[in-house]
Automatic annotation (TrEMBL):
Protein name per UniProt: Peptidase M16C associated domain-containing protein
Annotated GO biological process: protein processing
InterPro entries: Metalloenz_LuxS/M16, Peptidase_M16_C, Peptidase_M16C_assoc, PreP_C
Residue ranges constituting the Peptidase M16C associated domain according to the UniProt record: 455-703
Organism: Brockia lithotrophica
Pfam families (alphabetical): M16C_assoc (PF08367), Peptidase_M16_C (PF05193), PreP_C (PF22516)
Length: 967
């Protein structure tokens, strides 16, 4: 045991394959949770209680700012330096309603300690105390150039982007309504209207009050020695502090005598008179809902009644015609968790009819009792998800640590959420006793701690606020004395100069680094065995999966005519969610929950270096080994017996699909703009546009406006496309434990035999979108700007150095020019293996300025001086990005993608060797391509309707506002 600590717990956390230990640092009282496991993807996190005192976004801006230089690492942004030059598998920070978390992860122990070193120094000893330009850059400042004052700042623009999404406004309004007397009435992220009220004095004081070890929770996961971690914590941070009490828990909100009703508005762009209404019905159960049992129970209830296919409350509400889409969520990252039922696309004036219909449906469910089979199936699904722990590309340990914080943050047991089998067994025993029916009744019928929130569109609201802000800024600036005006200009110039001045070499040399010889020479591979049987192909990926099998059935879209792709794009919203010849939709959903981890469909498109792209509909399923025959039978039922054209479900699924696609437009604005741009260059992207992009949305809007007769005809066409797709040989992929692969093949042999063996006829690919600068008109308050060019006609040949160039452009150039100087939340650069170069920005206050930055990238590349240490960091960061660990199902999907794309293990190793050997000369060889990019590249921007229309660049305008049409 290291000196200075006492161990207070040591027990098994068998459900996650770990041994849990809790230590307390005696001098400061800081607790440390250590989850010892054989997982080599190691994670460290420091968490602080950070209740927001107002709406200025103090916790969020501080989260950004502590990583902008510290006592031992006086760089402008050590965070970016780490992103460029470490083998991290996760590097970020997160602000929650009342806590802030700083996690890092790496598979290399030395690298993790390097990351911990920089993060610990940043959170405890940041330079923000003596450097006011950090708040100016990351939070807000009055930017004065050419005599015109503007508000700029990274978080300010990030939150402007967030507040331009009606659902974000709705959730904030709901929390204000449910907790009017506690810290949860404030937005920890920051309200753009309030952020400019934050002062440097309040900023520094908040850090001093909340960022000390007594208010911290430290969490560690992985194959590390606890003693080494504890000694490191003591040496790098804790020895500098004495005991200090933690920040108190947020006070409880007393229940209301009657539910609260709140009406709020969201802005419509100028010229738009109509929009959709949103409504949320939220309910707080009580402080006991903090316990893991109640959190799990609420999540199971939300899934069973609303979020699963054919869920009874969802079906009842969709059947009224009062709403286009319904979903539920549980917010458990607050002291008193709440359950929310949300309706989207409600006709004007019908919000309270929606609430009445919801109450009627709840009363009926309580009166008749929620079906036991439905609840048991949802409970089984929850257990499967927890056991599987499919975290995608996130480190598994990070998810476990965040789960532990859900309880530990409020002085609960951090191990309770991790020992989930015992909790779910308790729920299983209660389920037949009416437990869930009583829970639903307590939430919405007997409870009074509720809020009904209606969010309605209001024309002119954004314009009025923007005009008022401009007027205030101009008046305030004009009222200043000449010397005060000059001081503001001086501070602006000082900030810009700092942003543009590189860190001195001696400061960069202080960062801990890995050596390149620590990097494996060979690229990580997904084992893939290709077996050809009859007309089909089987792909086997034998990897450890914890006795879960993952199956993907790929059927080709190649025979479809271009107009049929619109109908194929509907299938992901229909398969597994519609009735089949054997079962109605509700029974099918229950069987899937009872026996599998789910079956879903998606459009999967892959590009080869030569030849046409591979176009597929992928039907994916997962199940435990003992349930494989059931999974195979259900996937066969879905693949061959779905009643696609069944009404009214077909129309309901289409309305849900449109509502969700439209909701995703602004949050994914940079991806939407980038794909739209790529559809001018890539047949594969043109297919994705028709099956799920902007083209698909416009087609689906027009279809739904035509009425029932047109929908019935579309249902028949979609059924025809579905039948055609499953008449051709399939490629099936199995990902499973090595000793389970033969069992999976045997279980799925009948399904493969049931598919007709007819060779597909090659169809015609859809035409590329006409090359043009395009404006995607939306209600967003900020821009998402993409510019791109196909480099292949210029002789581009793909090399590993392109990945290093991406890293250089993204983190050295675009980060500084678009994010740091411009105030956007993010900026990206990518060159795909066929030579399409795209740069994009996220939540960006600028349009023309950002395009100019893209065009000036060639000057940057010509002039940048890259020394040995710079190249070392760029190469290391590039390898970290290429080697990002993946969960078992994503590993299988990567193996499938490599097969369809024709990527061989030899090619992966060749590209890696080229990355490791990249020199400054190799990077400067891309100058001619960036010259052409600046000269010939096309721009697609998603953003505020008025600003985009006013800009003269765009020859094509596409209206993405709900109900809008292209023009």
């Amino acid at each position: 045991m290291p000196r200075g600590y006492v161990q207070v717990r040591h027990e098994s956390a068998a459900d996650i394959g770990a041994v849990a230990k809790i230590f307390v640092h005696e001098a400061t009282g800081a607790p440390v949770l250590f989850l010892e496991t054989n997982d080599d993807n190691k994670v460290f996190a420091a968490a602080f209680r950070t209740p927001p005192p107002d709406d200025t976004g103090l916790p969020h801006i501080l989260e950004h700012s502590v990583l902008n230089g510290s006592r031992r690492f006086p760089l402008k942004e050590p965070f970016v330096a780490l992103a460029k030059g470490s083998l991290n598998t996760f590097l970020n920070a997160m602000t929650y309603p009342d806590k802030t978390v700083y996690p890092v992860a790496s598979r290399v122990a030395k690298d993790l300690f390097n990351l911990m070193d920089v993060y610990l120094d940043g959170v405890f000893f940041p330079r923000l105390h003596e450097d006011p330009t950090i708040l100016m850059q990351e939070g807000w400042h009055l930017h004065v150039e050419d005599g015109e004052p503007h508000i700029r700042g990274v978080v300010y623009n990030e939150m402007k982007g967030a507040y331009s999404q009606p659902e974000a406004r709705l959730s904030r309004a709901l929390e204000r309504a449910l907790y009017p007397d506690t810290v949860y009435r404030f937005d920890s992220g920051g309200d753009p209207d309030a952020i400019p009220g934050l002062t440097q004095e309040a900023f520094v004081r908040y850090h001093e009050e909340h960022y000390h070890p007594g208010n911290a929770l430290f969490l560690v996961y992985g194959d590390l020695a606890a003693e080494e971690v504890l000694e490191f914590l003591e040496d790098r941070a804790l020895r500098h502090f004495s005991h200090k009490a933690p920040t108190p828990l947020p006070p409880l909100q007393p229940p209301f005598p009657t539910p609260r009703v709140v009406l709020e508005a969201y802005p419509l762009p100028e010229g738009e008179e109509k929009g959709e209404t949103y409504a949320a019905w939220g309910s707080v159960l009580g402080e006991e809902a903090r316990d893991t049992l109640w959190v799990f129970a609420l999540e199971i209830l939300a899934y069973a009644l609303v979020n699963r296919p054919a869920a009874p409350l969802r079906q009842a509400l969709l059947g009224t015609g009062l709403v286009k889409d319904v979903y539920a969520y549980v917010e458990a990252d607050v002291r008193q968790p709440y359950f929310a039922l949300v309706g989207k696309g409600i006709p004007e004036g019908q919000a309270f009819a929606f609430f009445a219909a919801a109450r009627d449906a709840v009363e009926r469910l309580v009166r008749e009792e929620i079906p036991l089979g439905l609840l048991q199936a949802a409970l089984t699904r929850k257990l499967f998800e927890l056991r599987e722990a499919d975290t995608g590309s996130y480190p598994k340990g990070l998810v476990y640590l965040l789960e532990a914080l859900r309880s530990w943050r409020y002085d609960g047991d951090p191990l309770e959420p991790l020992n989930f089998s015992a909790v779910l067994e308790d729920i299983r025993m209660r389920t037949p006793t009416g437990f869930f029916t009583d829970l639903l009744s307590r939430l919405f019928l007997r409870g009074t701690h509720q809020a009904l929130v209606v969010l309605e569109p209001k024309p002119g609201l954004a314009q009025a606020k923007e005009a008022a802000l401009t007027s205030v800024l101009r008046h305030s600036f004009a009222s200043l004395s000449p010397s005060a005006q000059e001081e503001l200009r001086r501070r602006t110039a000082e900030l810009v100069e700092k942003q543009r001045t590189p860190d001195p070499p001696e400061a960069k040399a202080l960062l801990p680094r890995l050596a390149l010889h620590d990097v494996p020479r060979s690229a990580p591979k997904v084992p893939t065995e290709v077996i050809r049987e009859g007309g089909g192909v089987i792909l086997l990926h034998p990897i450890p999966t914890r006795r879960i099998a993952y199956v993907s059935l790929y059927v080709s879209l190649a025979s479809l005519a271009p107009e049929d792709l619109f109908y194929a794009g509907l299938l992901p919203s229909l398969l597994s969610r519609m009735p089949t010849e054997a079962h109605d939709a509700e029974t099918l959903a229950e069987l899937l929950d009872r026996h599998t981890g789910g079956v879903s469909a998606s459009i999967a498109v892959y590009e080869r270096a030569k030849g046409k792209p591979e176009l597929h509909l992928a039907l994916r399923g997962r199940a435990l080994a003992e349930e494989l025959p059931r999974l195979a039978g259900l996937m066969e039922e879905i693949a061959t017996g779905t009643r696609i054209s069944a009404f009214p479900q077909f129309a309901e699924r289409l309305r849900e699909r449109l509502a969700r696609l439209e909701s995703d437009l602004v949050p994914r604005g940079h991806l939407v703009a980038s794909q739209r741009l790529l559809a001018q260059m890539s047949p594969a992207a043109a297919v994705l546009e028709r099956t799920g992009g902007v083209e698909h949305i416009l087609w689906l809007r027009a279809l739904l406006e035509k009425g029932e007769e047109a929908l019935a005809a579309a249902a028949r066409e979609t059924e025809r496309v579905y039948r055609e797709l499953f008449r051709v040989p399939a490629v099936v992929s199995f990902t499973a434990d090595p000793d389970l692969v033969d069992t999976v093949r045997t279980a799925f042999a009948p399904l493969l035999a049931s598919l007709p063996n007819r060779e597909p006829v090659e169809g015609v690919l859809p035409a590329l979108l006409p090359a043009a600068d395009e404006a995607l008109l939306s209600a967003a308050d900020v821009f998402y700007v993409a510019k791109g060019l196909d480099l292949a006609p210029l002789g581009y040949e793909h090399r590993g150095s392109a990945y290093v160039l991406e890293q250089l452009l993204r983190l050295e150039y675009l980060w500084n020019r678009v994010r740091v100087e411009g105030g956007a939340y993010g900026a990206f650069a990518r060159i795909d293996r066929l030579g399409r170069l795209v740069m994009s920005s996220y939540r960006d206050p600028h349009l023309e300025e950002t395009i100019l930055v893209y065009d000036e990238a060639v000057s940057f590349l010509r002039e940048v001086d890259l020394g040995d240490e710079d190249m070392h960091d760029l190469i290391l960061g590039t390898i970290a990005r290429l080697d990002q660990p993946l969960s078992p199902p994503l590993q299988g999907e990567r193996g499938d993608a490599e097969y369809f794309s024709g990527i061989t293990p030899e090619e992966l190793d060749a590209r890696r060797a080229e990355v490791l050997a990249t020199t400054p000369k190799d990077l400067r060889a891309y100058v001619p391509y960036l010259e052409a990019f600046a000269r010939e590249g096309r721009v697609v921007a998603l953003g505020p309707k008025d600003a985009l229309i006013a800009h003269g660049r765009f020859v094509r305008h596409t209206n993405l506002l709900p109900g809008g049409k292209g023009f």
